[in-house]
Amino acid sequence: MRIGELAKAADVSVRSLRYYEEQGLLTSTRSPSGQRHFREADIDRVGFIQRLYAAGLSSRTIMELLPCVDAPSEATSDAAMERMEQERERLSAHIAELIRTRDALDGLMATNRAHRKTLRRATAA
């Protein structure tokens, strides 16, 4: 199938598919006129790539996980699990930092509310 057909079937943009191909996440064959041709199985592959991006993984990390999909073995499965554990730890640290930032913002908002209440009382008096 051509790139537009894959984009429609996978519900992604042609631009995304070109990016995936540039990153080595997706491959195509070229016709003599230079048109990209993809396999039917690439619909599922694009969906998988989309889910990994939605989970916050980078294209580099996704590339590291694809051998587990492309050539399943105990070694590729172990490598993928190790990489996913690293990503989970990274995401957990990021979430903890976001929570600290949110808590600091909550403190600033509480201070602001208290200050505004003081201003209202002073204006009313």
Oligomer: single chain
Strand order of the largest sheet: 1-2
Shape: elongated
CATH architecture of the largest domain: Orthogonal Bundle
Give a count of the beta strands, DSSP E runs of length 2 or more: 2
Fill in the CATH topology of the largest domain: Multidrug-efflux Transporter Regulator, Chain: A, Domain 2
Note the gap between the termini: 76 Å
Protein name: MerR family transcriptional regulator
InterPro entries: DNA-bd_dom_put_sf (IPR009061), MerR-type_HTH_dom (IPR000551), MerR_fam (IPR047057)
Organism: Streptomyces arboris
GO molecular function: DNA binding; DNA-binding transcription factor activity
Feature tags:
125 residues, two-stranded antiparallel ribbon, 5 helices, mainly alpha, Multidrug-efflux Transporter Regulator, Chain: A, Domain 2
